[in-house]
Design goal:
The protein has strands at 18-23, 29-34, 38-43, 49-54, 59-64, 71-76, 81-85. The chain is mainly β. Strands 1-2-3-4 form a 4-stranded antiparallel β-sheet, with no helix packed on it. A 3-stranded antiparallel β-sheet has the order 5-6-7, with no helix packed on it.
Length: 97
Amino acid sequence: MNIVYYRARTLWDIKSPITCLSFSSTGKELAIGMADGTLKIFTVCSGEVLQSISRSSPVTTLLWHPWNLRSLFVGYEDGRLDIVKVDLSSFLCSKGY
């Protein structure tokens, strides 16, 4: 079986190795956790950064809440757990991705 793929989007705002990533349940947002403790949330259709948060410990786990689409659970190597409220109020994407 041949696997066919294409590059849909390149995210240029990544400065540290990616340790984890998670798509929201709608598939419209992508959360990326990095080794330097940075969390970035992107829109899939435009690649725009919706939010960026930095902590002192690497991000190890990302999990979107299954019913509250704006809540993202973020686990860190030092044992910290954050619940991030994602601001989608300024987000408008006209592409049908």
